[in-house]
Design goal:
The complex is a heterodimer. Chain A contains 13 helices and 2 strands. Chain A is mainly α. In chain A, strands 1-2 form a two-stranded antiparallel sheet. In chain A, a hairpin with an 8-residue loop joins strand 1 and strand 2. Chain B has a 6-stranded mixed sheet with strand order 2-3-4-1-5-6, sandwiched between helices. In chain B, strands 12-13-14-9-15-16 form a 6-stranded mixed sheet, sandwiched between helices. The chains are: A mainly alpha, B alpha/beta.
């Protein structure tokens, strides 16, 4: 049985929101453990294991740099480990244990987020996500799914470039030394994107408009340009005139409505078909409901007692994080996809097998 | 790029488009589906009709029903990551009904013999399989014309044959018009009905393969031999050439090249094992290379050639076994020390090039090695033929030129040992000859050179020794002349013709004939 991509999307969305909401290392650990169980359910997608590991390594790197960054920038806290000269810009001042712990937890949350996305990436492929997009958002869906598949390719390119520069004797000592790594990566990625765009164009991506007069097409194009201008104007207002932020929001909302309408209208006049239609089965309902229950439950508990979810070593509450059993149980609901998949004895690794036939 | 072109191609013809890099082959091919001018820009005048449609009016999207375009690198044209989803991508975009899609998928998979790949992820396929999937993904729209831009340039000989045979079946069984460009003429000329030659001045010339190959400089060795010996008609295949031999056997061959003077052992690999994520890449490789030897590492894609080269430069460490290069154990020596002795040019020159000029690329390497960045090794620019481009932006150069700039960027550090990974991939004959001249000169100078390649002609011309890898193990290791005589799959055209180690190259034969 293959999971419906929407059920995976709901799980990943709920887990990601929770990872962003929670700053308590104990709850984060619970999210990691439940995600690990889900990973076990989809782990026979070992062909993607390389990119999964790469993403986790990237996450680890981010985690590790978050700790010194936080420790050097935030000088709050009572337990001083050592002090840097106060006249040093930004980093000067006491380096505290509280700041180190806060950096550790922030990095942990970021790594957890990447862990969730890496596991989601194993479970669902770009083509499945693409099929979820409603017809008028088809283009946006394709672009997003390609962007997702570009990440592992970019990591592979980065590795190749780093090796190539190392054998020329290049050593990374500071940001000035990044040029030999960044330039080839940017150029290679850009060239690949252009070649892919060419291939998609040559294969009829986007389809042909039918039953839409050229006048109407021109109107829709003008509408799209107008909505982009409105969006830009809204952003400028929001950034530079804080007192007028409501006007900015209105402009952005208008822009999105106009753009949505233009996409919808164009989508109605493009003939497109689907090869497969995924079926929503009982297991998908279990995944979606349990994930939503976890999210809603945690958010409700947060309303009643926000301190439980957060962990701040700077406060008087102390360095040890709090733990609430109901909250922990709610978070464990995120492991349901793992149980369901393991129970069915199959994993969501091969999206092409017998779906909707 | 192109001017005053008048050209008519009959339905069901297989046309081979040839010409040097930059002669306009890709531009011409992209005019057939409207990518030129709609995707690439530029100005165009005149009339183009393909399958009765005007590509300039219909644009690439509209032409995709009539013209299927397959690109050089299959990797860059896949939109989704499983075979079946890739096959239906174009059909879904054209609103083809579900039943028709299923029918066409089955049909195309059967035609290209890829049914067993249906559920595979594209990233797990071999090069030949990927290119056949790329072919299948455009064939599902049932185009009348199939256009291919150097479809075999990234493939090993066996994978290239698989793709070419598939094309021949499509042409013969379905009457599909096929237009393909290629640099390695010896691979494809036997399949072509017509040859379209672009000399580089914007014009095109079309005729039968024999007619066109009789006129151009880029002829494959067999045709060049036929021309030199006055054979009529010119042979396009080994069988045709044998008919001209008239009993003249290999006794007419003279080996003029002298064996190089070999020095001490420079590379010593003992029982080398390496695995990536549990997948065995090298399984007990032994290799010993002496100073002054030129060695070709050959084998199918995925046989472990690149992994072996990376071990020789210290980019990888053995799981088991030892690697000594220039007397240094790669396990105990830092990469910085190793690269003073050994220079490695990777497969993709783009991974190396970042600077604004060729000169800066070369200076960068010298600076990294603590050498004077303002001077270069004597004669390096001339030997590589990159002298005229020192002030050029490296990425504006052709593939072959970029390859030589990358080589220059490594050689600027004056290593004793050179390792080249697929140096002729996507390179035209003129560029390849420039590289061969350089390698021959280095061989004469006593430099140790190890090249990983699929290019048997390059090996026949410049390498003393061949090592064939198969699934991470050394299958054959011996002098080039001996190995080519015993293994026709890895032999040059001339060697296949005479079946004797004394005849590998045109020079071996014409040494006596001229």
């Amino acid at each position: 049985m293959i999971r419906h991509p929407l059920s995976w999307l709901i799980w990943a969305g709920c887990a990601a929101v929770l990872a962003l909401t929670v700053r308590n290392p104990l709850y984060l650990t619970l999210i990691v453990l439940t995600t690990w169980l889900v990973y076990l359910g989809v782990a026979d997608a070992s062909l993607m294991a390389g990119s999964w590991r790469s993403l986790l390594k990237l996450g680890l790197f981010i985690w590790l740099i978050t700790i010194p960054f936080n420790a050097l920038m935030i000088h709050q806290g009572r337990i001083v480990l050592f002090a840097l000269p106060a006249h040093w810009p930004l980093v000067g001042g006491p380096i505290t244990l509280e700041a180190v712990l806060a950096g550790f937890v922030t990095g942990y949350a970021l790594w957890t987020l990447l862990f969730i996305f890496a596991t989601f990436n194993l479970a669902v492929d770009a083509a499945q996500l693409l099929r979820l997009a409603p017809p008028f958002l088809y283009h946006a869906g394709v672009v997003t799914s390609i962007a997702l598949t570009f990440i592992p390719q970019m990591l592979a390119s980065a590795r190749e470039i780093r090796e190539a520069q190392r054998i020329r004797g290049h050593r990374f000592r500071g940001w000035r030394d990044s040029l030999p790594l960044v330039m080839p990566l940017l150029t290679t990625s850009f060239e690949r994107a252009v070649q892919l765009a060419e291939s998609m164009d040559a294969r009829g991506f986007g389809g042909e408009l039918s039953g839409l007069s050229s006048r109407r097409q021109a109107k829709l194009r003008v509408l799209m340009v107008l909505s982009l201008f409105l969006f830009l104007a809204g952003m400028i207002v929001r950034i530079f005139w804080l007192d007028w932020s409501i006007l900015g929001d209105l402009l952005i909302l208008d822009a999105m409505l106009f753009m949505g309408y233009a996409f919808y209208d164009l989508g109605q006049h493009v003939r497109r078909s689907r090869y497969r239609r995924e079926r929503w089965v009982l297991g998908d309902s279990a995944i979606a409901l349990s994930s939503l229950a976890a999210l809603v439950g945690v958010l409700l508990l947060r309303q009643s007692d926000p301190a439980h979810l957060l962990y701040s070593p700077y406060t008087a509450a102390g360095l040890l994080p709090a733990f609430s059993t109901p909250l922990g149980l709610l978070l464990m609901l995120l492991s349901v996809p793992g149980w369901v998949t393991l129970a069915e004895g199959v994993s969501q690794t091969d999206p092409a097998q017998g779906v909707g036939r | 790029m192109l001017r005053e072109i008048n050209l008519q191609i009959e339905p069901g013809t297989l046309v081979l488009v040839i010409g040097a890099s930059g002669a306009g082959k890709s531009t011409l091919l992209r005019c057939l589906n409207g990518l030129v001018p709609h995707f690439y820009g530029g100005s165009i005048s005149g009339l183009v009709r393909v399958a009765g449609e005007n590509p300039i009016e219909r644009q690439p999207r509209g032409m995709s029903r009539y013209v299927g375009l397959v690109f050089q690198d299959p990797e860059t044209q896949f939109v989704v990551d499983t075979v079946e989803a890739e096959l239906v991508f174009a059909m879904e975009n054209h609103g083809v009904s579900q039943d028709t899609m299923r029918q066409r998928v089955e049909q195309v998979m059967a035609q290209l013999e890829i049914s067993h790949l249906r559920n595979r992820r594209i990233s797990t396929l071999s090069g030949g399989e990927k290119q056949r999937v790329a072919l299948a993904s455009v064939l599902t729209l049932e185009p009348q014309v199939l256009v291919l831009d150097e479809p075999t340039s990234q493939l090993d000989p066996q994978a290239a044959d698989e793709v070419l045979q598939a094309l021949q079946r499509l042409n013969r069984d379905l009457g599909l018009t096929i237009i393909l460009s290629e640099h390695r003429l010896e691979r494809v000329v036997g399949y072509a009905d017509q040859v379209l030659y672009l000399p580089g001045d914007g014009t095109v010339h079309m005729g039968s393969p024999r007619e066109m190959l009789a006129q151009i400089d880029q002829a494959p060795p067999l045709v060049a031999l036929g021309r030199a010996l006055g054979w009529t008609p010119l042979p396009l295949s080994i069988e045709e050439a044998r008919a001209h031999l008239n009993g003249q056997g290999p006794e007419r061959c003279i080996t003029t090249a002298s064996a190089p003077a070999l020095g001490e052992v420079e590379i010593d690999v003992r029982d080398l094992w390496h695995a990536y994520d549990g997948h065995l890449a090298l399984g007990g490789v032994d290799l010993s290379v002496r100073q002054g030897e030129t060695v070709a590492i050959m084998g199918a894609n995925g046989s472990g050639k690149t992994t072996l080269l990376k071990h020789l430069v210290g980019l990888l460490q053995p799981d088991r076994g030892t690697v000594q290069v220039g007397g240094l154990d790669t396990h105990r020596t830092s990469l910085e020390e190793l690269i003073r002795v050994v220079g490695y040019v990777p497969q993709n020159p783009n991974a190396l090039l970042f600077a604004d000029t060729v000169q800066e690329e070369l200076s960068f390497t010298r600076r990294n090695h603590g050498l004077d960045a303002n001077t270069l090794p004597l004669g390096l620019l001339d030997a590589l033929g990159i002298g005229p481009y020192v002030e050029s932006y490296p990425r504006d150069l052709s593939v072959g030129e970029r390859q030589r700039v990358a080589l220059g960027a490594i050689l600027a550090a004056e290593p004793r040992i050179i390792l080249l990974d697929e140096p002729t991939r996507g390179v035209d004959r003129v560029q390849k000859e420039a590289l061969m001249r350089y390698l021959a000169a280095e061989r004469a100078n006593g430099r140790t050179v190890v090249v990983s390649t699929h290019d048997v002609e390059l090996v026949a011309e410049t390498m003393d020794r061949m090592v064939i890898l198969e699934q991470g193990r050394v299958l054959v290791d011996g002098p080039t002349r001996q190995v080519m005589a015993a293994h026709p799959a890895y032999a040059s055209q001339i060697s296949q013709l005479y079946g004797d180690g004394r005849c590998l190259t045109l020079g071996d034969v014409l040494g006596e004939a001229t």
